[in-house]
Amino acid sequence: MVRLQNKAQEIRRKTFEAIYNAGGGHYGGSLSAIEILTALHFDIMKLKQGEPEWPERDRFILAKGHAGPPLYVILSKLGYIDPARLAELDQDGGSLPKHVDRLKVQGIEYSSGPLGQGISVACGMASAARLDQNNCYVYVLMGDGELDEGQVWEAAMTASHYRLDHLIAFVDRNRNQIDGTTEDIMALEPLADKWSAFGWHVQTIDGHDTEAILSAVAAAKKATGKPSVIIANTVKGKGVSFMENEYKWHSGQITPEQYTQGVADLEGVSKQ
Amino acid sequence: MIEFGERRDTNATYGATLTALAKENSNIVVVEADLMKASGSAVFKVAFPERMFNVGIAEQDALSFSAGLAAMGKIPFVSGFACFMAQRACDQAMNSIAYNKYNVKVVGTYAGLTSEKNGGTHISVSDLAIYRAMPGFLVIDPGDANEFAAVLRFASEYDGPVYIRSNKGVFPTFLPEDSVFKPGKAIVLSDGADVGLITCGIATAEGVKATAMLNELGIGVRHIHMPTVKPLDTEELIRTAKQTRLLITVENHSVIGGLGGAVAEVLCAQFPAKLIRLGLQDHFGETATLGYMMHEYGIDADAIASSAEKAMNA
Ligand SMILES: Cc1ncc(C[n+]2csc(CCOP(=O)(O)OP(=O)(O)O)c2C)c(N)n1
Q: Among the atoms of ligand 1, which is closest to the Cα of residue A28?
């Protein structure tokens, strides 16, 4: 478990560096999602080394498509993409657009960016898998601001209507969107009750605790007959002192001094 | 001369054709948004209950859900009123389907004026324009139920997104029942040196009747049926433009961005010619019968013939 936690911190540092080198980008929601992405890709998901198109692999949809950078860092570690490509993040003519793109990047299952659609796609995938008696799980990661989109709740109904118990959704509950906090812009609470009312199995966890993520997924798999949502309480901009919990760091550019500060913050945590 | 044959129902054709195709291809699935009744897929549900998904009155979910099915190798036919498939779920079609290059077939039912008494809000005046503007989508407005069936078969075999109009109603057929659909190919229905008449969808049958009327007046008509609005058969279009004195497009859609718009784009770039675009002249439909609106909006046989005659004498 320490291994996974350390891996996450390493990915967080690489993500911070990649976004900085790209000239800026979506720091906040990339940094909040690190442990979820790490736990999924390095432990939870059934993937086959060297066979990215293996039909029985678990599927992952990054519905909050703007958090491509940490996923690319992970895919580079898994051998899906050459780590040298991280330098192409968001560059003219480059091959790594921040909004994940399945036609450009091996290992991306679905090109996203327009919020609210990923969960519907995940429902379609889970339905097709069931039809084929393919026992794979479909994971989807949504932002909490993303839940403002009506389509999410259309899909929430579809998932429970069709009892898609191989669909496991995460909400990156970092409590911030672009223009402010989620509760100021469009209040979500009581969020767990909303999902329950839609017929989902609901858990609320510390989204930076990899152990908690693993056990929540294990519990979700036991909840048969209904889809599962894991509301992961996180900190937007996690790990970088001046970014933490500041909605204005949803995206932006930082100065070299700020970069140095961020690197020191992230090194500090690693040393603890 | 084109002869009209048996009358066939679009709705019944959809269900019967998909059911037949699904027997041959186990990957075919159907997605609905509480308008199975309009599309005609209920028989499919009876035959293949587990391969039919009804997501409720949620067109956005329906299209993205279909994208997910396609991502796993299914061939979804998703339908709903054409206005909502194009307008409400535009972003889902653009991003979940087209941007991802997923093999989804979107079927817009009660297309254009065939929505009739559902009225102005339900009459899709822009669905062809909207889907035509999406990279990767083929856009097809079949002329009759026989062609509709052939288009469905073609779409099931073609790997990529297709938008297909389903024109509500029981119409006389004029294409053979066993026709094979050729995407991007126009069908020449008559030849003549005066008017080049280019039609799609339900306007084609009107064009056939108008051709007979014009021939009576001694006006020759080269009538081409252009079911594929994207990609357009530019070769046949230019040939027709070269062979005739003026061109008329007719469509059950706004003249902006649909067949008329597409033809104008090609002509301007490749062979400037006199063009009259018949269709809805940048206005909505209304609560009325199809026949009434087609006449009022100038796209029935009488209106086409009189527009052509006037233009020839101008
Ligand atoms: C449909 C849509 N509308 C608007 C945007 C612009 N946008 C990008 S990120 C974002 C805020 C997302 O907030 P949240 O889902 O909480 O993401 P996170 O905080 O995890 O980054 C918005 C509004 C978008 N990508 N898609």
A: 21
